[in-house]
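FORM 7B: Structural annotation worksheet

SECTION A. Query
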Amino acid sequence: MTNFHKPVKRPGDVIEMMGGGGDPAELGELAHDTAAALLHRVRRAPDAAVVDRVIAFADGAGIEDLAEMWAEAPADSLPGALWRLYLLRHAVREAPSAAGYRFKRGVEVDTVGQAIAGSGSAPSPEEVVVLSTRILRGAFTGDFAIALERAAAFARVMAVGSAELVSEGGLTERVADERRRWEGYEAVSAELTKAAALWRDGALH
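SECTION B. Predicted structure
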């Protein structure tokens, strides 16, 4: 998984891109306010073009804006959950071949996770990227708890794939990197599963 710590100058872009009013920098709790504004505004008016823009926002420098606002938010919060959804897609999109192979190895073992995530039995790297986008889109257009659960299953499959690669051994440094990915994806899977339960209880804020 990727860590972001670079300061950015445009924390309001995620709201302004949708034509929203107000300066999020003036809000007392920027992370929670922007996450709630983004999610609820898009879900109230699920225009396909707006959803496309919200998803594509993270494809460039926007991922750094989101990191600045949300990366430090607790995992059991709305901004923390949204950040993990975006980060999963970003990690796959940035290295589709490696991520696709990792996911493919994972679905060979974790067929339950494969089914929940909504993947075929032998997805190509391109199909894995499309799947990650579809899961993120579901957060804005469908049942948010289900989107979180699908993302959790997706992360679990990635973790299993990393575990399989670790078991194969190889260069020490490469194995150590893969072990970190394994641990990172496992953690994200558990965090998203908890976030889904909190959302269903009305306790994810």
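SECTION C. Observations
The radius of gyration is 17 Å. Residues 3-28 have pLDDT under 50 and may be disordered.

SECTION D. Sign-off
Analyst initials: ____
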